[in-house]
Amino acid sequence: MAVLADGSVRITEQDGDQFSVSLVGAIKFLTKGAKMGTIDGGAAARIYDNDPGDEHAYFGRGYVQLTWWSNYAKAGDALGRGLDLLLDPELVTESKTAYDLMSHGMRTGFGFANGHNFVEFFGGKKRDYKHARKMVNGISHAEDIAKIAEAFEDVLLASRKWVHMPPPVSDEIRGMPKPWTSHSPFSGF
């Protein structure tokens, strides 16, 4: 991968196919007949070996296990971060970035979520952990993951009886001094 003078990035895959990625994540094929992705175990093309850019591995990272360089480029743009995830894929492992990526996908159906969003599976009386798996990796292991999610939900719901929350504060009195402080107009009573 090489950053070009205009700020865009040139990607050279191991099979020699080249692509450019604009500052807004638009992908353009530079090699005639190029296809994204390479065959595992294939020999590297000479153009790949001689490319002066940096080599990055775009394996699964973050809470949703983001993969493929093209998804890193699109995700960075979707989060308003430009090409920084493409240029530094380890950023996806940072908690805030991983959460932002997961949250955005679940709310919009973008990227890893395969066009599915949270409200398709949850809300009101809907609670469908099995089919919510479609947001990540189709329905692979959907029943196993649904059981884990249901058990986790049960733990969270059971913990409510042990958490003592103070009553909500009305916006009308928020920020007013408490009657027992020395700065209160009620002190001295």
Tell me what the structure shows.
- With 189 residues, this protein is α+β, with helices and mostly antiparallel strands.
- A hairpin with a 2-residue loop joins strand 5 and strand 6.
- 29% of the residues lie in helices and 9% in strands.
- The protein has a domain of 47 residues.
- A 4-stranded antiparallel sheet has the order 1-2-3-4, covered by helices on one side. A two-stranded antiparallel ribbon has the order 5-6.
- The N and C termini lie far apart (72 Å).
- It contains 6 helices and 6 strands; from the N terminus they run ββββααααββαα.
Give me some keywords for this one.
elongated; single chain; four-stranded antiparallel β-sheet; 189 residues; 6 strands; alpha+beta; two-stranded antiparallel sheet
What is the CA–CA distance across the termini? 72 Å
Tell me the radius of gyration: 24 Å
Q: Which strand order spans the largest sheet, edge to edge or round the barrel?
A: 1-2-3-4
- SSE succession: EEEEHHHHEEHH
Q: Extract low-pLDDT stretches.
A: 184-189
Largest sheet at a glance? 4 strands, antiparallel
What is the overall pLDDT average? 83
Q: Hey, roughly how much beta strand do the residues contain?
A: 5-15%
Strand tally, please? Answer: 6
